[in-house]
Specification:
Length: 89
């Protein structure tokens, strides 16, 4: 009976970990979309006679553009992070 309880706990832990990773993935996806839309929207500055150097300087000064990088990092972590405990050990 004790072995069955350990198996159930291990299964519950794996389910919670997958839910946590899914939540991190979805939040990261939302950040990436928000930041990406901002970066693309600010491309309109180039049509007003600005060059790409000024464009990159401008988007580096805008905090909402950093959401793209934060979102991509969160997605990468959610997809490729290893468990602390190996499930086979």
């Amino acid at each position: 009976m004790d072995k069955q309880k350990r198996t159930v706990r291990k299964t519950n832990r794996m389910c919670y970990m997958m839910l946590f990773r899914g939540l991190i993935f979805l939040i990261g996806f939302g950040f990436a979309v928000s930041g990406g839309v901002s970066v693309i929207a600010y491309l309109n500055l180039t049509t007003m006679g600005r060059d790409f150097r000024e464009y990159f300087k401008f988007i580096l000064s805008r905090p909402e553009c950093y959401l793209l990088l934060i979102g991509l990092v969160m997605i990468t972590v959610a997809l490729y992070a290893e468990d602390k405990k190996n499930s086979d050990a």
